[in-house]
Amino acid sequence: MTKESGDSSKKEVSTTSTPQFQCPMLKPSNYSTWAIRMQVILEANGLWEMIEPNLTTEVNTKKDKTAIAYIYQSLPEEQLLLISKYKTAKEVWDALKKRHVGENRVQQAKQQTLKSEFEMLQMKENESVDSFTTKLTSIVNKAASLGLTYEDSVVVRKLLNAVPDKFLQIVASIEQYSDLDEMSVDEAIGRLKTFEERLKSKKEIPVDSQESLMFTRHEGQGKTFREHGRGRFNQSRGQEQDKNTYQSKREERASFEEDTRDKSQVTCYRCHKLGHYAYECPNKLKNQVTEQSNLIEEDLEPTLLMATITEKK
Known about the structure:
This protein is an all-alpha fold. Among the domains are: 14-101, no CATH class; 104-203. It has helices at 3-16, 31-44, 61-73, 77-83, 89-101, 104-120, 129-145, 152-162, 168-177, 185-203, 207-259, 282-299. The longest helix has 53 residues, at 207-259. The chain is rod-shaped, with a radius of gyration of 55 Å. It comes from Tanacetum coccineum. Residues 1-22, 210-259 are annotated as: Disordered.
């Protein structure tokens, strides 16, 4: 064998060798994700046609055995013993699916449950786009593992109808300017997430602005309180002034009436003389002056008096 023939044989081996992938282990609770990963691995190695053959698929024993080998690598011992009697990759795959998914009636019941979950699913007001789309895609993937497939257009419309009213603007824009039948789920999710980030940025208010707003409100309330207080004080003061004015006018009128009244027949009860009332009596005025003088004398400081006694010799 020449050197060139050896190189060509190496090239032929390298091009025909299949890539190696680490197969996930099948567990009682992870069949849906396991089936998705295994399908990708088999497709990458050109072996998925052994599981789902079409009209043009030719019988290829080597590919079939290789597909079985990949499936066996992902099974625990107890699972391996149960399906070892099946001879083709399709039989092995269907047996595993039947065991984990259930019989046809159970499968239909699960499909109906997932349909209800898909239709009733709604995004909460405080829920993020990532959290909601995770729930939505989880239902879609579970449905796919049961043979129920949702097209992207159906999932996109469900997504746009399930978001809260705060996304109404972006939803209307997508429906108006985009073809929902051609839009992928990832594109719809990306647009909603972009709009969500803008909403978050608008809700963020700087601390300085908040403090200024609080100060303005406080100042306005204080001003209103001062104005109300001042108004009440001025009102009370005005009422007091009106009352004093009315009292003064009343006293002036009474004094005028007394001055113009005929007192010639009036008898004073203090001195029993005619021509005046008791409160106008001259004796009363004298007594008041005397009392005031006595009060002034009583207020004076006491004086020390000295007496001299002369003894007789």
